[in-house]
Amino acid sequence: MGNVIMFIVFAAVIVVSALLCVTTKRIMRAATFLLFVLFGVAGIYFLLDYTYLGAAQISVYAGGVVMIYVFAIQLVSKRTLQGMEEKLKANRLVRGGLAALAGLVVVCLILFKTGFYTLEPANLELSMKTIGKALVGADKYGYVLPFEFISLFLLACIIGGLVVARKEEKK
Fold it and tell me: Scanning 91, 92, 106, 134, which has its CA 20 to 30 A from the CA of 147?
């Protein structure tokens, strides 16, 4: 019974923080709410006894949110950080809502086509050893090579962002 209550608490924290993250107009508050979402997901991992995934969630993604803070401070203008951003236009809101609805329809179609919703929970049990080998394995279905490519790409993005942020105007 305690696990169900904790799951409900974590789920509520995740849903509320996610909604606040996408509806706030201030970038620092959005990053903070994103941090709460990530901590909630880590809490669910700990609740499921996936301690490695929970610890990785906190260390990797909390570090990522710190990078968001750094980029928000360096790349965003002072007026935006103070809350004087542009107003949201109605047509942009409608287009965003339609894009979100289209994404939801695509996800639902994929779930129904693959039959994922009919799988028994007992068939979905995976050990941490299996998950670890799948994430960092170098075999046919391992993700170590794409992980390294993504890390190099993100490093290039960080360097490019810092170059753009520190570029001096020519007079």
Answer: 106
Q: Cβ(136)–Cβ(143) under 8 Å?
A: yes
Please write the tens of the pLDDT for every residue from 125-166. Answer: 677 777 777 777 777 767 777 777 888 888 888 788 777 777
Q: Round the CA-based radius of gyration of the chain to a whole number and report it.
A: 20
Count, residues in the chain:
171
Q: Specify the pLDDT at position 135.
A: 73
H helix runs in 24-143, sequence order: 27-47, 51-56, 62-75, 78-81, 90-114, 128-136
Q: What's 139's DSSP letter?
A: S
pLDDT digits (tens, 9 = 90+) for 12-44: 999 999 999 888 877 778 888 988 998 999 999
Residue-level pLDDT at 40? 93
Task: List the Cα angle 4/6/10 in 5-degree steps.
Answer: 115
φ, ψ at 87 (rounded to 5°)? -75, 145
